[in-house]
Records
---
Amino acid sequence: MSKVSRRNLLSATAAGAMVTAAASARAASFGNPDEPPQGAINTKGNPASLTDPGPQNPAIGDQFPSAQSPPPTDVSDMPLFWASFNNAPKRIQNGGWARQVTQADFAIAESISGVDMRLTAGGIREMHWHLAAEWGFVSYGNCRVTVLDEMGRAYVADVKEGDLWYFPAGLPHSLQGLGPDGCEFLLCFDDGKATEYNTLLVTDWLAHTPPDILAENFGVPVGTFSKIPLHQLYIFQGKLPGALLADQAAVKGAKGFPPHPFTFSLGSSAPVRKTKGGEVRIADSNNFIVSKTIAAALVTLHPGGLREMHWHPNADEWQYWIKGKGRMTVFDSGPKAVTMDFNPGDIGYVKRSNGHYIKNIGDGDLQFLEVFKSPYFADVSLSDWMTHTPPAMVAQHLNVDEATIAKFPSNKPEIMPE
């Protein structure tokens, strides 16, 4: 082959590559950026590409339209960031039940595990303590909580729907449902591996301690403990407690009460941000002083509202979806972008610094909790970043003029529309 013919061949190959690259570049479009392009938009002229004739469970599949047909901006995959209490087995006892989702069930959830628990009126979660800190959110009814701090100061309080409690790791406590219909609540532990079914229970300890040691420890005859339960109670039906003031007086010792409450009224607190699209309430160590390892935000989105594009620089986000219907897209390097749908009782999880947004896609209010293993709440708003970077710099990134950039929200709205 001559040098000339080889040169011609190389030129032709390069030209062909340029044509292919140009055609590929033209294939991408706004709202459909990837090569090959993704989503149902690719099926024009070939509708069979969307059909799903194989085995399926419509009761489940219909709950996840974004998994069945993701938006064309989704790309690649990432660890599943959806779980649910709705299919978690219940441990049912006389007095209530519990179900949990830990990292054993939900691999991505490294920092937080969750429990959904129900207590009847008078139902008792027996006296116990944990190796992890416990953060509670009341989703229904009323509950009485007791806790003893390391200084020997007791705390007793009644909590209602929307209220919180926080018990640092190792502090002993109990929970009891009140009238008229007991309670249901969410528990979060600051360890993804923590399990509700592996707690340190007072009945277990006494049953596994020699009777003579019990007698010596409490300064009473051995026979005093002849009728103690030989198996853990865990959850059991008890009698409704008396007046709160009476219980508080009964537990008061010489050292008085703890300096800071172990409970907090998140649901009835003033929103830190309120817009046309919804509102946000926050509880962390700044206003709920004892809560040193868990921070949370209670977010309400009105129909059509958007929890703005943002990320959390300080911790992973564990979510509990309380009511309504929502859709969340999570963005990671790669690029990776995955969209998932959520309903009441579901759990979401977003890794630290992964970008995400949440859209209310239902007819009523959407409400969910954002929970973090951190003493404080922190997030970074995309629009806030864009409006606090020199406009000329942003304009060159987006091919948008500076006058338009000046219209972006510059006050970190949290929820859109403002």
---
Amino acid sequence: MADTPNIAATKRFGEIVNTGDLDAFHEVVADGCVDNDPAPDQGTGPEGFKTFFTGMRAAFPDLKVEPRTLVADGDQVAFAYEITGTHKGVFSGVTATGKPIKVRGMQIGRFENGKMVERWGSSDELGILKQIGAAPV
């Protein structure tokens, strides 16, 4: 069975993050896309995601997002994922430690015309901070 446009857009979102081709977010994220769980100072639309992932990739240049399970229903796609990387830049005020991270997260995206228009999600930021030694284990 072929991917729906929404599933294809979700997979492409992950490819964009993993390759660092962050200018390509406009392919899968609508201009007015609202992130209901934004990072501090994250704007809306493709530029908001570009800003966020530019910072993440500066902190973790080998950042990878791997979907573990994905389900779709109508105009929504939900997936659980695992994030891995090596802390080689500043993250949440913590300078590079060289430590590896491995955390999980979840995202639900609502789509119109093959582009994400709204997002809900959460990644284990506390888990990242613990793994880089910035929070008690």
